[in-house]
Amino acid sequence: MKAKADMAKFTRAIAVVDGLHSSRPEYRYIFVEAVDGRLTFAATDGEISIFSSCEAAVEEKGSIYVSAGPLANLASLKGTGEASISVGERKKGDNTEPTLQIRSKAGRYTLAALEQCFTLPELKGAGFVAVDGEKLKPFLKAAATLTRRDAGGNVTFTAIKLENGEKGLRIVSTDGYRILVADVPDMELPVPAECFIPKTGAARLASVLTKDAGAGFIGKEYLAVKNESVSVAVRLMEGQFVDYRQIISSVGSDIGFSAEAPVLRAAVARMVLASIKVDVAASGGVLTLSAKGDGGEVEGEESIGIESNKAGFEGAFNGRFLLDGLDLSGEGPVTLSSKGAEHVFFIRPKDAGGMSYYLMPMNR
């Protein structure tokens, strides 16, 4: 392998793939390839694979694996001009080992390398279709935020479900206490049946989405997205997903109220300063929120005006979870409705652009 590339673009491409961490030794390497006028770097942790490339004058095509730490250190160099990259070898005892040699104005570097290390997803088999990444990004980012840890500190409900719905691509996420259903209008992907991606992977996919992005599936193993210089492939998960349709179909409107999202959001945020548990009581066009910290040392209470033609009610919510739902609600009116104070609440924002948020109340 022998190639030349702009030093700034070279180090920037390395920086993009740095940061995937794994306890498995074989994943502590970065794949380097020179072919078709580009220099490509790739890293994986076995579940998420990141590819980044830059333009290069390729004299001899080839590929090699280099330890991630030393190569990533080069990304901090502020060198300019041209970088020359080639594969060589050096003596190691009675044998020789492959090396990656990098020369620039900043200096000359020789890094130990491996000819074979791990297998990466084959992006050429993804069958990419054009997608509006700027439209898809907020939905994936929102779905990735619904995380929770159990008593042992383990993350639960780690998957996001993808399916093609009546309005386009549907993204569903839950942590057991709340459900986010996001319909991306006028967007369809060749989604396989029972398609699940990890929430950590969804955040990575969202990070590279641009207006003119591409997305596709590599068989039934990976979902991949790409922009002009960066691609991310996420391994699909197996298992069963909560029957979210049954849950959301049971949501009623026997009780509920409407309020301005910014006003309600600010009031809930102040209550959360006292306690995660926020009590609410709606009656006569007024919503009263209250919270009491452990031991009663900190208490808060305030009222805001609401619109409601439903019966009054009293209930309690996890304040942080309620804030997450209100953060998706934009700046206009938002409606909370349910069959009863002990049933799932539907947070219906006026301008959330296809996102629906369902929240379980807390015991009072």
Layout of helices and strands, plus pairs?
Elements: E1 2-6, H1 7-17, E2 29-35, E3 38-44, E4 48-55, E5 57-60, E6 62-67, H2 68-73, E7 82-92, E8 95-104, E9 107-114, E10 129-131, H3 133-144, E11 148-149, E12 155-156, E13 159-165, E14 168-174, E15 178-185, E16 195-198, H4 199-207, E17 213-218, E18 222-226, E19 230-235, H5 244-249, E20 255-260, H6 261-272, E21 277-283, E22 286-292, E23 299-305, E24 313-318, H7 319-327, E25 333-338, E26 345-349, E27 355-359
Antiparallel strand pairs: 1-5, 1-7, 2-3, 2-6, 3-4, 4-19, 6-9, 7-8, 8-9, 10-17, 11-12, 13-14, 13-16, 14-15, 15-27, 17-18, 18-19, 20-25, 21-22, 21-24, 22-23, 25-26, 26-27
Pick out its properties.
eight-stranded antiparallel sheet, alpha+beta, DNA Polymerase III, Chain A, domain 2, 364 residues
What does this entry show, briefly?
The protein has 364 residues and is an alpha+beta fold. The chain is built from seven helices and 27 strands.
